[in-house]
Write a structure and sequence with these properties.
25% of the residues lie in helices and 22% in strands. The protein is built from 14 helices and 21 strands. The strands form four sheets. Strands 2, 9, 10, 11, 12, 13, 14, 15, 16, 17, 18 and 19 form a twelve-stranded mixed beta sheet that branches. Helix 7 packs antiparallel against helix 9. The radius of gyration is 23 Å and the shape is globular. The chain starts with 27 loop residues before the first strand and ends with a strand.
Length: 535
Amino acid sequence: MRWHKRLLVAGVTSVLALTASACAGGQVRGGGGTPQPQPSGSQPATTQANDSTFVYVPNLDVVTDWDPATSYSNEIVALSNIYEGLTRYNSETRKAEPRLATEWTSANDGKEWTFKLRQGVKFHSGATMDAEAAKKAIERTIEKKGGAAYIWDAVDTIEAVDASTLKFTLKYATPLDLVASSGYAAYIYEVDAVDPDGKTTAGTGPYTIDSWQKGKETELTLKAFEGYWGGWKPEQYKKVAFRVTPEITTAWQLLQNGEVNFVQRLNPQLFQQAGTTAKVQTAQVPSFQNLLVLFNTASGPTKDERVRQALQAAIDYEGLIAALKGSATKASGLVPQGLLGHATGMEPKQDLAKAQELLADAGYGPDLPELKLSMTYAQGDEDQKLLVTLLSSTLKKLNVTLQAKPMTWNAQWDLGKKQGQDIFVMYWYPDYPDAYSWFVNVFKSAEKPQFNLSYLKNAGIDAAIDALPQLTATDQLKADMAYQDLQKKIIQEQAAVAVPYVQTYQRALTDDIQGYVDNPAYPNVVFFYDLKRAS
């Protein structure tokens, strides 16, 4: 998925503005609005206990990696409820808010950050969460160098000043309150309790793992952690299940029948129907999640830049947006609107004459040899399937056969890491509200591909990417210009990717769910603890 990284993902309600500059030295962020424990015994006796299970329906398998240090894919939907970070991003206020830290300050022009930790927090094992435990968790994540560990690259040292005080000294200024709110690599966990098989008791979140059956329809179930610092109210959900349902029509039928509670994505037709269906409610919000059509720059027919440029020109962007009927908006560059680095005037356009000319230059076309291209995309994703259908039809007229294969994310990703396809389709979204994620993960050179699935290797682009974090913290105007320049190089000069659209999330829920808020900073995540079932 990522929702997969990068499919989903699986998130934010309103368009977020990047808060890249660190707060003034000594100024306290947080404090107000800090959640306080709510002992269930303090609730009115008339409140009815919620014994039902909240059933979430993803279209792809959920867990690819249980380790909170290296996890970097679909499991965000589960791990965000099992683990917590120092902060959490609030998409409505566009700021980080307290989680395991109750307040924080910055000094030395954003190069020193001090976080005050919440008292009385227990890991699921019963051990106490304190500054030393938090320090060990972040240091282990950094040492593992997996997933999104790059978010901590600015960190020079971490010090547990006392049991409730965590101090960071940075190599360069960075908005560490935003970094600490990341959906990946920012979890605080009990290092000694991490279990690679998923039987972990390392989290502090409201839920723990009840069962995990890889490959089964009901892949994962969670249960309430009774010792959670926030306490429990009778009407909250104490049981959660993830029921993997690849076919969207099946998921919709299950929702109508009341067998499931949340479908993360409907196609436009079903979403419109859901709006007038009894016992169903809908939610629609803009996101930071865009679709990437990545071309293999290292091998096969698409190693030829002319073929890649032809494919860019062949995509029917307008037709795709029209067919998606409100579930997407046309992209302009790699960075969605609302983030520093968004490029205006880079909206792609279909140009079939140009596509045919480029293909002919490369030796392919209607009166030339046939070109066969392999393409992988997400099983069960109707939007990606629509892209495939439109592109296949267009290319056929140019004597290009698109051998497109829908796959589960794990299978697609495994093949991609072996350079096993010409075109790789996936979604991307930022790890925290900053555009850097697209560039360092997807387009920086990698000896062993992870998400660099265009296999682009360009020393100049790499150097420009490496300069982005410090530039963002010290000179946003120059950072914005650097992002614009990088997007031109990657999309126009290298033709490594086409970016057809940015998703608009369209959800469907049963109408007895109260408290649901879609936070695009955590794509496709439902924070189950915030929900209650209407009596």
